[in-house]
Amino acid sequence: MAVETTRWGILYCPKTGFSSSQKRWEKIEAALRERGVVYDMVQSENADSVERLMTMLINNGYKTIVVVGGDSALNDAVNCLMKEEKRVRDEIALGVIPNGVMNDFARFWGFVEDDVEQTVGWLAERRIRRIDLGCVRYTNSNQEHCHRYFLNCLNIGMTADIMNLRRQTRRLFGSRTLSFISSLFVMLFHRMEYKMKLRINSDVIDRKVMTVCIGSGPGYGQTPNAVPYNGMLDVSVVYHPEVVQLIEGLWLLITGRFLNHRNVHPFRTTEVFVDEARKAMVGVDGRLMKTPVGAFRVNIEQEVINFLIPA
Q1: How do residues 78-88 score in pLDDT, each as one tens digit?
Q2: For 158, phi and psi rounded to 5 degrees?
Q3: What is the spatial distance between Cα 210 and Cα 208, in angstroms, rounded to a whole number?
């Protein structure tokens, strides 16, 4: 039997490797109780269980589903939701209480990990915005046609590697700032170029490229002007700079002025064709995905998810 429409389904994704997950949930639970929120909670054991639990919440009729997790958990939830028919998706509002190694999509909207009371209060107001999703369509190693949606960005090349490293160092240091700085430090000694061929609007880029970010959202600072509700993708293509220029670029990234760097070439489009990205890693919302085999395409899907935003 379906649950009442006002009851929340909460998918709690504890941070891997952190011992304070129980205290974190107790704090969230207190904020929910203070607001009088009626809810049912399920807890994921690992990344593979998120989609299974999300499917269960959808099938049981929850109209408000809140993910307590980071960018990767949100990505899993969104991809699960996109498997449903449009009429089912349109009845569901997706929310987030940031609780991940990386919470950039939640941070874009103004949700703060340390202020659970404010976040729960905003979600309880049930202010909904229809948001866009990016989508990468590719062929895997079994020659199967696949696709994956993203809320924030898709990275090709060096940044995909660095995002993976940042996730690992965040678990080690427990600090977003320290993990970011340590990842950038490693980057200085791990510079690489990748032979790529990209088609963006009428431009053809056929040369060695350091990294590409395709963002429906701010792209971890690499597509800072992107917003997930204008029906467009922002693209930053970064050519390989000299060491001094690389350090300058890292500073501009930290200070939110990434597009000012001379080796960053920005575009705005609805579709990107990647005809070649030889040996380059691909990351989706901060998590590495299996590298597509051969060419792949990235496009935007307009207003496909109901997302709960601050009141």
Answers
A1: 999 999 999 99
A2: -60, -40
A3: 7
Q: Among 3, 301, 258, 294, which residue's Cα sits nearest to residue 131?
A: 301
Write the single-letter amino acid at 215.
G
Name every residue whose Cβ is closer than 8 Å to that of residue 46 and which is 6 or more positions away in sequence. 16
Range in 103-112, 207-216, 232-241, 251-260 the model is least confident about: 251-260
| Token pair in block for residue 129 | 């915005």
DSSP helix/strand/coil, 280: coil
State CA 285 to chain mean position distance: 3
Alpha helices in 82-154 (DSSP H): 86-89, 104-109, 116-124
Candidates 29, 16, 183, 19; CA nearest to 100 is 16
Taking each helix axis from N to C end, the angle separating 176-188 and 158-173, rounded to the nearest 10 degrees, works out to 140
pTM for this prediction: 0.87
Q: How far apart are CA 59 and CA 75, in angstroms?
A: 19
